[in-house]
Backbone:
């Protein structure tokens, strides 16, 4: 009987350290998801907002400032903060409009460690 309990104790040796490592790993993954998730959600909203600009009448005749202002109003409704619409380049080619979005988001992780996420998208629309 005594040999059985001694054997069980030897088998459990080191399991506390393994459990601590597993918990720390999942805590780090959760921290990354909490810190980086909002940047990806904002990018998704920005992308959908820019794609929704194609529904705008006479987009081919709008000035770049008007297009940016239109996008900025939609982003304000969706509560997207910290995004500068000057990061959107507007190019025209006849009746088509190309919107190029190129920006970075810097998010503090812990201490003096930051994560930098780069987003680059191109949206093309035909004018109506």
Residues:
């Amino acid at each position: 009987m005594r040999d059985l309990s001694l054997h069980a104790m030897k088998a459990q040796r080191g399991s506390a350290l393994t459990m601590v490592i597993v918990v720390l790993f999942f805590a780090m993954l959760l921290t990354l998801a909490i810190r980086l998730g909002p940047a990806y959600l904002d990018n998704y909203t920005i992308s959908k907002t820019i794609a929704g600009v194609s529904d705008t009448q006479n987009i081919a005749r709008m000035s770049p400032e008007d297009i940016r202002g239109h996008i900025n109003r939609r982003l304000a409704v969706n509560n997207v903060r910290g995004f500068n619409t000057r990061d959107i380049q507007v190019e025209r080619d006849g009746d088509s409009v190309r919107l190029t979005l190129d920006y970075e988001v810097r998010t503090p992780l812990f201490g003096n460690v930051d994560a930098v996420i780069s987003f680059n998208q191109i949206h093309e629309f035909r004018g109506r």
